[in-house]
Amino acid sequence: RVDEWTDVDRKRVMNDIISAMFKKNFMEELFKPQDLYSKKALRTVYDRLAHTSIMRLNQASMDKLYDLMTMAFKYQVLLCPRPRDILLVTFNHLDAIKDFISDSPGILNQVDETFRQLIETYNCLSDGEFQLIRQTLLIFFQDMHIRVSIFLKDKVQNSNGRFVLPISGPVPWGTEVPGLIRIFNHKGVEVKRAEFTSAGNYVTPQREGSFELYGDRVLKLGTNMYSVTRPVETHMSGSSKNLASQAKENIAPNPLAKEELNFLARLLGGLDIQKPAGGETGFRLNLFTTDEEEEHAAQTRPEELSYKVINIEATQEPGRRAELSRILGELEVAEPRPGSAEKGEDLLALMDGL
Amino acid sequence: SQAAWCELPSRVLLVLTSQRGVQMYESDGSTMVFWHALHVPEHPAAHSVFARGIAAAGGRFVCVGTSSGAVLVFDIPPKGTNVTLNEVLEQHRDPITDIAAEQGQAPDGAGDLVTADDSGTLCLWSTGEEFTLLGKIPGSGCTCSSVRLWNGIVAAGYGNGQIRLWEAGSGRIRAQVSAHARWIYALDLAPLTGKLLSGAEDSFVHVWQLSRDPDTDGIEIRHCHAECVTDTQVCGARFCDPAGDTFAVTGYDLSEIICY
């Protein structure tokens, strides 16, 4: 029960999860150049991270948490004024995380180390490269329109699930307020100025956000949405058009499944799974108001929006991991089961059974 | 990934670009005419490999840009599948963003092809059996996301929302417009009238009128019309006819094409 949690418990869970996320070998894997994860793979990693402490979540609460995270991140990426602002969003995330573990110097060090690596790897990228990253992320989030209470209330999301794109406010750093036309003659001398008007109401920005380890990011995207207690409801989209396109995505076999499983095995193999010690039973987090509501949500979740999570009991034991690799290796020459879609699906089915 | 119709005097091809390379199809989509694979390094490099920027040029070629900055020039036979890689242009050092061929009448010495890259650098070419570089306009660090060429005027859209007009012959800037509040994704030109269409992430689509006075050699741009596609980041904008009387718009997360 959440109401039986003490501050010590909360602190423990926070420290455990953050410590797991920023562990050296986990981060090392993430920083390797690689393709964007599939939705299945990302959800699996997310599940695993959420369970690296003594906290547990049922499927329904886990689904809801993931929905919230997905839509919040989609919002942040979509609304970035400049492509390189996705880096500022990341820095905002890290600043908030550092605040959560401000009294644990060991973990703080790990986070700062990641921060430095981000600065080293990304600060020098061009606008074009950032836009490519941003476009790749937006393709991942395309057609997701889950309505989030907090966004609906703040009027940043419409009732059809689409985000509000304001046409007023400061223009991005490096952009001019629209309206001016300057004409030059063949000698390069300005000979005429004209103005045009349109519906937007933009102003000049005051200053640029900081890309250093410490500094004012200026951008609000990526700061803690829940710094004041807010509701966590989400609503499934009612439009069948959107659900249809998502359904197709889940059914089509993933040809990169084997490579992805290798990646997952490496990544998750480094994550410690905490088992509650001795007589502890662990704590279960329920994102709904009652257990009954959670149960109901699990049963009524639209099939198209269910995340097919891979259950991998990847542990630290080298023996077990070798076993995993051997199984994957053996499967390369295995005959596909009659009636099954593709090798990829076979592997995934096997992993589910482990 | 991109798709573009390449209109040549003898045939129309549908050209597609992606991370794997370039594919060309007959205009009815029935057969694949040609496929060029991009060289992918053994181990995944920090920079992705892809093809981007497509244009038909010189009545005979299809030009495709790549992430290395190289522009591939394919020689297209009047019919059949005997497409060959004629030349590789290596003047850009940053990934190609867009390529455009002259849609009107080029003044002497102005060239008939323009290529643009991530750094904002523009190259002007004269097409032929061997392409000749006529001029290079250095970028100022802002990505030139899309480009058009008409009557020797280069119209370029930038990631910082600006539209700039350059004179192709001299490489001099002739106009600078603070057109959009966000990244410009699309530019299109109606060759019969000189209308220019711009679409950007700020949800706006603008229609402009380009003009070139042959006596004074004055180049002008004026604003005609603005449309706001509410809550949509415009990703594509194209005129539906050569006079520019109608245009179509697409956007992120939008499953419809909106026609104006």
From TrEMBL, chain A:
InterPro entries from the UniProt entry: OSCP1
Highest taxon of source: Eukaryota
Record's GO cellular component terms: cytoplasm; plasma membrane
Protein name, as recorded: OSCP1 protein
Organism for this UniProt entry: Myiagra hebetior
Lineage: Eukaryota, Metazoa, Chordata, Craniata, Vertebrata
Automatic annotation (TrEMBL), chain B:
InterPro entries for the chain: ASTRA_WD_repeat (IPR053299), WD40/YVTN_repeat-like_dom_sf (IPR015943), WD40_repeat_dom_sf (IPR036322), WD40_rpt (IPR001680), WDR54_beta_prop (IPR049546)
Domain of life (superkingdom): Eukaryota
UniProt WD repeat ranges: 177-211
Key words of the record: WD repeat
Residue ranges occupied by any WD repeat-containing protein 54 beta-propeller domain in the UniProt entry: 2-258
PANTHER family with a match to the protein in the record: SUPERNUMERARY LIMBS, ISOFORM B-RELATED
Protein name per its UniProtKB record: WDR54 protein
